[in-house]
Amino acid sequence: MKPGRISGVRGMNDLLPADAAVWERVEDIVRSWARSYGYQPIRTPVVEPTPLFARGLGEVTDIVEKEMYTFVDQLNGESLTLRPEATAGVVRAVLQHNLLYDGPKRLWYMGPMFRHERPQRGRYRQFHQIGAEALGFAGPDVDAELIVMCQRLWDDLGLEGIRLELNSIGDSAERKRHRGDLIAYFEAHQGALDEDAERRLYANPLRILDSKNPRMQTLIEDAPKLLDYLDGGSRDHFEGVQALLREAGVAFRINHRLVRGMDYYNRTVFEWVTDRLGAQGTVCGGGRYDPLIEMLGGKPAPACGFAIGLERLIDLVREAAPASDEQRCDVYVVHAGEGAAGQAFRVAEALRGVGLDVVLHAGGGGFKAQFRRADASGAELAVVIGEDEAHTGVAGVKWLRSTAGRDSAGRQQQVPMAGLAEFVVNAIVALGEDDGGD
Ligand code: ATP
Ligand code: MG
Question: What number does the ligand 1 atom closest to the CA of 123 have?
Fold first, then answer.
């Protein structure tokens, strides 16, 4: 009996070769962008102890309430969770390895996150985030740096129309005063609250403000605004961030309803949003989280960071630059006949040794079938090794592709093996120059 096929987990995507090029292009840009701001890479495990998130993110958050992949390690009974975000793990690692011992740190990461959400465009159960965390810096300059850094990434990727929304949620004393008034306000309109809001009314009323329920929007617009409750320190900090953003020419809008999902935030919160992605329009969320390091058992130290949704970012990149950048190789090595296979193997290695991307034909077959493969590979040149070539120490070089302004397709030449690598490199360079050099 033929065994049935097994599909992947819903909401968790395969990255197929046809899509890999745009991902790698973005990842390369991201790496040099992070380096250009002095952020150092950090990689933490995909699995962490569950209490890290319960404590770090707060019990009454969407993520901890209903989105975490949590399971018991059968071997020791420990509760583990697939990371829904990376900030808590990064802070854990920083504390565990005492990375702040010699001063503040700028760190960045990129990798998969897991949330049990309803899959739809821009919302998946395994998705990827690019994030930066500046640990140990208290001033508004670092908040502004992180925001400006995002703007530069959009520019580097050629993206337009991503808008910055900004707010300050103050510190815990300020939120406490606001919270009292907020609860009183919502109590006075209890009939208009939806189920989520009723549940959050006493546990986490601030979160009612970022409800997406259309029925509640007018109610939320008129709710007491946190900014009116900020004291001198928080107010100055927020003013400082805004002044630096104006200095840098980064436009923003103050959004009083922006409160962010995680409990660990304080003062500056921000989101980058776009209209180009349908309902899932938030590309990046971030802010200051001064309380988190102490909440996770560290010596109190301020911190600020952001996380970008990579799938959403790549959707935007695809839309902005619909490049056909499937991976091509430079050379396809075709071979058949007595003694040719070994020779071809050596030739392919020699060509790779001088920096070329080379596919060596595998699986046998006649020259005609092999040339079809060579064409499909996107290679510029085929190197041909037959029985004669193998014996005479000469290889055939055949030009495969013709594009506008070129008359080389179909051209063929015999080249002595000894000078082959150099010949092929020069031929590839010449073709690149024909194309205006790419
Ligand atoms: P949302 O309100 O869309 O659920 P969030 O507040 O839960 O977003 P964050 O935790 O701030 O999102 O994560 C930062 C970014 O990661 C988001 O702005 C988004 O771009 C991306 N992101 C979050 N959840 C998902 C998901 N399930 N699938 C794809 N991208 C996601
Ligand atoms: Mg969410």
Answer: 28
